[in-house]
Amino acid sequence: MSEISILIGGKAGDGIKQAANTIARLLGRQGYNIFFYDDYPSLIRGGHNFSIIRASESDCLCHEEEVEIIVALNQDTVDRHIGDLRPGGVIIYDKDNVEAQGIGVPMDQIVKEHSGIPIMRNTAAIGALGALLDIGFDSVEEIIGATVKKALEVNIAIARKAYDTIERRGVFPVPSTGRKALPLVTGNEAIALGAVRGGLDLYIAYPMTPASSILHFLADHGERLGVTTVHPESEIGAALMVIGAAYGGKRAMTGTSGGGFALMTEAISLSAQSETPMVIVECQRTGPSTGVPTYTMQADLKFCLGAGHGDVQRIVMAPGDAVEAYEWSYHALNAAWYFQVPVLLLSDKHLSESAFSFKEPGPLPEWPGIKIWENNDGPYNRYMATGDGISPMAFPGTKGATVKATSYEHDEYGITAEDAKAVQFMQEKRLRKAKAIRDHFKGMKTIKEYGPEDSDVVLIFWGSTKGAAVEACKGLGIRSIQPLVLEPFPEEGLKALLRGARKVLCAETNATGQLSCLLRCYGIEVHETILRYDGRPFTPKGLKKAIEEALR
Amino acid sequence: MKDIKALGTYAENTWCPGCGNFGILSALKGAIKELQEDGVPIERVVMVSGIGCHAKIVDYVDVNSFYSLHGRVIPPLTGIKLANQDLIAIGHAGDGDAYGEGLEHLIFAAKRNLDVTFIVHNNRVYGLTTGQFTPTSPLGFKGRSTPGGSPEEPINPLELLLASGATFVARGYSGKVQHLKGLILAGIRHRGFAFIDVLQPCFTFFNTYEFYNKLVEVIEDANNENYRPIEEAYRLVRAWSYDLSETRIPIGIFYTSKRPTFEERLQTKKDSDSLDRDSAIGAILESMV
């Protein structure tokens, strides 16, 4: 087997995501690369939830809608997805609740026989699927042991019974590849771990889908990782607390989605003006406004590039998979502290909540140490006008230093200044810093290129579109390019890569082509823009078709 | 140690002559001087202000300060205390800051019992924006946004703070500098959220000197030895409702109580020197296979 895709669906409350996660890890332990996509509406009970697990011997950063196996805990799963079943595919279903052609398993009955509770149908589904995939029951038992927290024995007995009901074993055998099993990590978990690598001390955030799992993950593991988590009164409180903590000397970060980010814009401006480091993770959802809370979109790019009043120096990063999320979260903390500016890390539901087989990259590139004031440097001036615009930091509690930070325009000491000369002087100090940021990022790998170098057709994409874009372009034999940093914009690097390109396409999941627009601002011609704006991510097949149409 | 003179800065003071802020500034400097005499190093003191006339105080005192945004005094104060519990953090806010734009933060600071001292320069008018009514202006206040008189009743912030769980609730008057200095020092020494509403005339837009001089009355302070039940505190703070009635206006410490602070209750991060983050990350990733 080189790859297999499985869809599991049911209503909210059926434990679909949990079961899918268990199945994903089971396949991961067989030595496959996993991508795990979770699709659910914004409700707690009812509705229709489904997850797609794709396991491959090759790299695997996205899913296709078509699958080999459908596991149905409700009728909707069959009715809505039967068209996505590939030829030769099979449906496993709870025959006590669902009508379908395929392999019926009396999941309800098995649960009742074992005096289980209704949600344990998902364990029956895992057991039955394990048999169909010809995975030894000991492996199924092990993964249930690792994921189920309550009533383990009952769950194992249910899984065993369901496993034994399957007569057609090995229809889709998933033998072990013998390769080392990798952890299954979501984009948000990677962001959290990358931030810890970047020295995170405090994570302060107000819950908002799809950012909340960063808070949950760090709250769960905070003690071990040395991170304090705080859930404050609002996004405004969160962002301003991050700034206060940084002024106090601790590395802090917050995370939210578009609506919460809107409330944080005054803090971005304050961070820039007071030169206090802050990192905001912006996990986009389908907008505008409340939009479609649990679905994806890349529609906050312009907002992030422009958020905050005044001429705000900022850095905007947009990773495209879990490894990049980990790396750029590390960079975000370091860049914020080195340059004393706000850094925005852009994710979206598709990256934040999808899970990837995660291979920790080698040693992360080192950042130069932050500039810290030494007592023998003379009197402390928070805003000392240095050549590169970066003033040494000191924190309250430092003997001999009075640290005066401010939202007002100010002199070098930090006292309010309003006369023309003083205002211009400090604006120019910050402009020098903006130049230092641009220069620094020129030395970093902020653009990735995939596919044949001599291809004169190029697809440009950003963020979570990566998985589908790289795969679709590979299938078509064309080149694709991904800018990972959108501010400072890697203008020269992109232009160099596009020299000789005959046709430039741009794909993104929003309704107006925000990256295309940005590219055009920098004088980069985009011939065709491919957009998806139904709240769902691109898949390789769908994107490939759209590219072919665009090239026709 | 910085004496009163050294506690000042080179910044030109731009408060109006007769501004109530001068009294608050004197009381604060006096309190900081006394703290130093008790052996507190000056670098441990940090002030945060909002935006408005009151906020200029951070430019006039030569200690660590963060000049924040309108309504956003509490959140940076909270962040500062989360970063470094050893700091003595003093918040300064106007009545617009504290009771208007930043009200939710204030209620949460009291609820959490954040260990800071919070001083509200309550002149009951927006001064820097040239005279509009605030949450504590009396009904019928004629300001530039309400030429026909404010249509709203004032809130009684002391009552609100008692209800929100503040463990130190006091009121001072900028015209009684020594008394105010005592309140500020008591607030700083209190472990938990110390709230001080300071009645402060605005000489230009709402001159209340005569009114306060006539009516303020110092009460016996509540403290550890002199415990005052909260019902009694409520009765005292309700004696005057921030209106124009000629009733006595009690000032002093109305209520104190003890409970753990936010900082103590938060699961605080382990000493990072004893942490091995590499192996922690490794172990967490291993558990996700």
Shape-level CATH architecture of chain B: 3-Layer(aba) Sandwich
Q: Order of strands across the widest beta sheet of chain A?
A: 6-5-4-1-3-2-14-7
The N- to C-terminal Cα distance of chain A equals 34 Å
- Estimate the strand proportion of chain B: 15-25%
Described by strand count, sense and barrel closure, the largest sheet of chain A is:
8 strands, mixed
Number of strands of chain B: 8
Spatial order of strands in the largest sheet of chain B: 2-1-3-4-6-5-8-7
Main features:
heterodimer; A: Rossmann fold; 4 domains; eight-stranded mixed β-sheet; seven-stranded mixed β-sheet; 20% strand; B: 289 residues; alpha/beta; Rossmann fold; globular
Polypeptide structure, described:
- The complex is a heterodimer of chains A (552) and B (289).
- Helices cover 38% and strands 20% of the residues of chain A.
- The longest helix of chain A has 23 residues, at 420-442.
- Chain A has four domains: 3-165, Pyruvate-ferredoxin Oxidoreductase, domain 3; 186-357, Rossmann fold, CATH 3.40.50.970; 375-442, no CATH class; 447-551, Rossmann fold.
- In chain A, helix 4 crosses helix 6 (152-165) and helix 9 runs parallel beside helix 11.
- Chain A starts with a strand and ends with a helix.
- In chain A, the strands form three sheets. An eight-stranded mixed sheet of chain A has the order 6-5-4-1-3-2-14-7, sandwiched between helices. A seven-stranded mixed sheet of chain A has the order 9-8-10-11-13-12-19, with helices on both faces.
- Chain A is built from 19 helices and 21 strands.
- Chain A is of the alpha/beta class.
- Chain B is α/β, with parallel strands linked by helices and 289 residues long.
- Chain B has a single domain, classed as Rossmann fold, CATH 3.40.50.
- Chain B is 34% helix and 16% strand.
- Chain B contains eleven helices and eight strands.
- Chain B has helices spanning 21-37, 57-60, 74-83, 95-101, 103-112, 157-164, 177-189, 209-215, 230-237, 262-265, 277-286; strands at 45-49, 64-67, 88-94, 117-122, 168-173, 194-199, 216-218, 249-256.
- In chain B, strands 2-1-3-4-6-5-8-7 form an eight-stranded mixed sheet, sandwiched between helices.
- The longest helix of chain B is centred in the first third of the chain and has 17 residues, at 21-37.
- Chain B is globular and about 70 Å long.
- The relative contact order of chain B is 0.13.
- The chains are: A alpha/beta (552), B alpha/beta (289).
- At the A-B interface, helix 1, helix 7, helix 8, helix 9 and helix 11 of A face strand 2, helix 3, helix 5 and helix 11 of B.
- Strand 15 of chain A pairs parallel with strand 2 (64-67) of chain B, so a sheet runs across the interface.
